[in-house]
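Example record

One chain of 292 residues, shown exactly as stored in the release files.
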Amino acid sequence: MHSGQILDKKQLRAAFERASVSYDQAAVLQREISNRMLARLEYIKYKPDVILDAGSGTGYGSQQLVKRYPSSQLIAVDIAWAMLTHARPNTAWWQRLLPLQQRSDYVCGDIEQLPFKNESVGLIWSNLALQWCNDLDRTFAEMHRILRADGLLMFSTFGPDTLKELRQAFAKIDGYQHVNRFADMHDIGDLLVNNRFSTPVMDMEYITLTYDDVISVMRDLKAIGAHNVLQGRQQGLMGKNKWQRVIGEYETLRRNGKLPATFEVVYGHAWKPFDPRSILTPETRRQLGLPP
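Predicted structure tokens for this chain:
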């Protein structure tokens, strides 16, 4: 991967740490997409024993999943500890004595390297977190590894047209990448198949938010930690003259008194099929020439 396309994970973690206080006030789109994902679960008759919220943020999705599956154990994972601190309720001592399936656990970690045993999770839920992964192929391999047979992966992420207006405005000013890159829906589907997920279902929609000015767009992005953390980004502050030119380019897109900010939202879910070879003993696998 070209260095200009690689996310700086240290900068990413720091951005979300700083945004943890302001995140909930600005994350209107994130909550809406989470609700739409939850609605899709209505059509899936499946009750997981262990749920992993991969990229849990301040815990809105985790809270909804706990309500929907009260007998399941939920594990929330996020790269920023401050996000988990906001998500974690003040738990009374007696609640910590509850059976595991009635508790929620919080783990600070990178979803590209999940710190869980093979086949230990029944449902992986990930709302708008996959776009922060450098290697989606590796991420899906990790998710496949920890999912149990017949387990479900459900996710949302951003597609290439996300923030196209902002990208267009910056493109006319210089050659730096000021907006993160996002994977195409069809490429994501191919990666699921390559990682042995079955019957992947992919679809997308456009959601356009409107703003009074460019500063408000940037303020919202900063509040949710959505900074440009590409290694190939321009270093240092942008000059006043250049910033005014960006604003001027964005202003040409104003319609009905408002500036648009488009988000291409990609949804997907897929199952981990049962592998009959998993019931074979190590000795039988060796005799058949199968990997251990």
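Notes: Residues 47 and 69 are 7 Å apart (CA to CA).
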